[in-house]
């Protein structure tokens, strides 16, 4: 095969009929992972990609070395206090995975730990490198220390298919227990005494639907809850106070919480409030009462309180506001912290209620009257609570970043209102944030809605500049303004980087999300096109390369169909581009759960017609398309590999322009390669392709 001859996927017409509409899918055969023809085709695509991008090898290596050279390879996290220990992770030069450690606690201030220098009393809890061995893929699904600090529960995945094996380690002796449980999902929770661990299992559609109880040393686990409604996921956790186990069942739009005294692991969970369609809520234990964050008659959520003996009786504390989306509530022994979103930025509100002799209701009402927000100086930033496992503390650990400020960890001293910088991620190679500048722009959508855009560039970059425009726009997920080491390789080459905060995300509150889902999904796509045109019309950009992954990959496919002329290239990572066929098939992983996000085209002809009007695979036509790089993983359980494979095959057969390239990781999952050096090389490959597109 010559480098100019792409693979040609065979056409095997497969007929399907829905709501009177008959469609021929010529590439449906690619969904058969066990078919040797499928493997052969994917390998041929990888070989073609290798030939087509061989000339980028030097640039890719250069970018990889830039990423590596800016990264302090031997590094560590800031220690977090939990009980009698400070916990932290180390990374070491030349090693792919982190090492989890702890040291005995002495005082409230984190110990001074130096990269590359072992402490005399440092104990290794879990070494990812040792566990990974020679495996091409490795991932940890959960790592949970028992409340008394003596036992570790951890789970591992060596394929990328997100089926984990759970094991237990005695942290006193370092010995592994014989207990071993296969095919579990992420997460889990200990009972208060560390005798019992709760975990979840998935069904054939990859939906976590069962919660099991495992007593250490037992040969047979007990099913404590099974969710039969296929729209609901389940999960389990332990409150920060370690007083309650919290079992949550939730769909995309509805939740139901059960609680159990953590000192009674064999007891019966009780429902906080029965599920009501469209009502979401979460529960936080605050000592002698509960906080409840909910959206009953409160689109952007309301914070309420409830007594321990009647957690379903909610009394409003922070009322709903149209301009502020309440995201989460973190409760501590004598204060609480509300994480919120306003004007496209995140924030923190402190409620200091103390632990005096007043009733809990009097204290929380006074706390709201004395509440205040922590202020930050930059025009764009992202802040959130981080690493606060201790219930009784006068310090709040928070994470802060912006498009020019590397990720930073602060302790906020509640008594003095002082922000104490504990660590800012080192960026080697002479990085100076003063060389860069960030902006907030507003583009105007087709319907007149103003779309926020976050922009960063070098101060000396000449406008208009080649631009990488990133977008997502689903599940109320916000792409907040954050820092990226790999991105510097673009900015230092004169690129502008921008994030289009399109509807379907959560940047502007719950209404922003509602206006970009179901039968308003097209707003997500037209918003992104409007931002691309805004960047050109206002002199920011000349050549715009679009990038997005997963549901953001659907965005990439849709905007390429809508306005292919606007983009000089498109990078679609694990892209959800065969959306209609996937959401029509309830046997596929996660499909039924997704009906609340996209609609149910299987039973609703209007939803079927609407999805067919935008699904990327369904709408490829003969116009000139920009160059497209699609990246996927064979073992992805969320967006199956065949979606981009079918899309690229159809582009080749139908569209003009291109080239259209497919890269399949044959041993990875939804997140791509697992080791950090492997991940850097993958990112360097994508960035080299983007740089060429921007400067061609």
Write the layout of secondary structure elements.
Layout: E1 14-18, E2 21-25, H1 36-52, H2 57-70, E3 75-76, E4 80-82, E5 85-91, E6 99-104, E7 123-127, H3 128-132, E8 139-145, E9 151-157, E10 164-170, E11 176-184, E12 189-190, E13 196-202, E14 208-215, E15 222-226, E16 233-238, E17 244-250, E18 255-261, E19 270-271, E20 281-285, E21 290-294, E22 302-306, E23 315-318, E24 324-331, E25 335-342, E26 345-352, H4 360-369, E27 372-373, E28 382-385, E29 395-401, E30 408-413, E31 418-424, E32 436-444, E33 450-458, E34 465-470, H5 488-491, E35 496-500, H6 510-514, H7 522-537, E36 541-549, H8 551-562, E37 569-573, H9 579-584, H10 591-598, H11 605-614, E38 624-625, E39 628-633, H12 642-654, E40 656-657, E41 660-665, H13 676-695
Parallel strand pairs: 34-35, 34-36, 36-37, 37-39, 38-40, 39-41
Antiparallel strand pairs: 1-2, 3-5, 4-5, 5-6, 6-7, 8-9, 9-10, 10-11, 12-13, 13-14, 14-15, 16-17, 17-18, 18-19, 20-21, 21-22, 22-23, 24-25, 25-26, 26-27, 28-29, 29-30, 30-31, 32-33, 33-35
Helix pairs in contact: 2-13, 7-8
Domain Peptidase S9 prolyl oligopeptidase catalytic: 483-691
Protein name: Oligopeptidase B
Family: Belongs to the peptidase S9A family.
């Amino acid at each position: 095969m010559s480098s100019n001859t792409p693979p040609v996927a065979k056409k095997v017409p497969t007929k399907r009929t829905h709501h009177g509409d008959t469609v021929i899918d010529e590439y449906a055969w690619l969904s058969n992972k066990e078919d040797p023809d499928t493997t052969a085709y994917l390998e041929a695509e990888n070989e073609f990609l290798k030939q087509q991008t061989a000339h980028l090898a030097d640039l890719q290596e250069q970018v990889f070395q830039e990423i590596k050279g800016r990264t302090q390879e031997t590094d560590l996290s800031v220690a977090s206090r939990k009980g009698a220990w400070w916990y932290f992770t180390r990374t070491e030069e030349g090693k792919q995975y982190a090492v989890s450690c702890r040291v005995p606690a002495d005082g409230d201030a984190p110990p001074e730990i130096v990269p590359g220098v072992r402490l005399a009393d440092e104990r290794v809890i879990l070494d990812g490198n040792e566990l990974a061995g020679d495996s091409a893929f490795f991932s940890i699904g959960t790592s949970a220390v028992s409340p008394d600090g003596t036992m570790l529960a951890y789970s591992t995945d060596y394929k990328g298919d997100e089926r984990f094996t759970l094991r237990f380690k005695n942290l006193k002796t370092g010995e592994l227990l014989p207990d071993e449980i296969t095919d579990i999902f992420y997460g889990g929770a200990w009972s208060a005494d560390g005798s019992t661990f709760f975990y979840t299992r998935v069904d054939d559609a990859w939906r976590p639907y069962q919660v099991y109880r495992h007593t250490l040393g037992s040969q047979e686990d007990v099913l404590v809850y099974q969710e039969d409604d296929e729209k609901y996921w389940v999960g389990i956790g332990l409150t920060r106070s370690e007083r309650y186990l919290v079992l949550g069942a939730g769909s995309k739009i509805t939740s139901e919480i059960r609680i159990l005294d953590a000192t009674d692991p064999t007891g019966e969970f009780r429902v906080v409030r029965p599920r009501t369609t469209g009502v979401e809520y979460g529960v936080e234990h605050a000592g002698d009462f509960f906080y409840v964050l909910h959206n009953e008659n409160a689109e952007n959520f309301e914070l309420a309180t409830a007594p321990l003996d009647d957690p379903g009786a909610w009394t409003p504390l922070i009322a709903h506001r149209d301009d502020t989306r309440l995201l989460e509530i973190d409760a501590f022994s004598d204060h609480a912290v509300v994480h919120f979103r306003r004007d496209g930025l995140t924030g923190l509100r402190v409620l200091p209620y103390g632990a005096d002799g007043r009733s809990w209701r009097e204290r929380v009402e006074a706390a709201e009257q004395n509440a205040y927000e922590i202020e930050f100086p930059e025009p764009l930033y992202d802040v959130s609570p981080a690493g606060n496992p201790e219930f009784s503390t006068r310090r709040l650990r928070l994470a802060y970043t912006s498009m020019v400020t590397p990720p930073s960890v602060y302790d906020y001293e509640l008594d003095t209102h002082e922000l104490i910088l504990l660590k800012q991620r080192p960026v080697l190679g002479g990085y100076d944030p003063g060389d860069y500048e960030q902006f907030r722009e507003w583009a105007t959508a087709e319907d007149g809605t103003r779309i926020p855009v976050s922009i960063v560039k070098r101060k000396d970059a000449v406008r208009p500049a080649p631009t990488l425009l990133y977008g997502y726009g689903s599940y109320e997920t916000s792409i907040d303004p954050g820092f990226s080491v790999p991105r510097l390789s673009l900015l230092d080459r004169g690129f502008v980087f921008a994030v289009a905060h399109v509807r379907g995300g959560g940047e502007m509150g719950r209404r922003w999300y509602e206006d970009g889902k179901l039968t308003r999904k097209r707003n997500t796509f037209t918003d992104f096109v409007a931002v691309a045109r805004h960047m050109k019309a206002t002199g920011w950009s000349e050549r715009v390369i679009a990038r997005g992954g997963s549901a953001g990959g659907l965005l990439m496919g849709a905007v390429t169909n809508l306005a292919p002329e606007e983009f000089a290239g498109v990078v679609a990572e694990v892209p959800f581009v065969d959306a209609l066929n996937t959401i029509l098939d309830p046997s596929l992983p996660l499909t039924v759960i997704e009906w609340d996000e996209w609609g149910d085209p299987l039973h609703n002809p209007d939803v079927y017609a609407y999805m067919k009007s935008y699904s990327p695979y369904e709408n490829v036509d003969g116009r000139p398309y920009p160059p497209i790089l699609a990246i996927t993983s064979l073992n992805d359980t969320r967006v199956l590999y065949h979606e981009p494979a079918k899309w690229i095959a159809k582009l080749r057969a139908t569209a003009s322009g291109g080239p259209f390239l497919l890269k399949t990781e044959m041993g990875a999952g939804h997140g791509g390669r697992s080791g950090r050096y492997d991940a850097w090389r993958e990112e360097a490959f994508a960035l080299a392709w983007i740089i060429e597109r921007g400067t061609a």
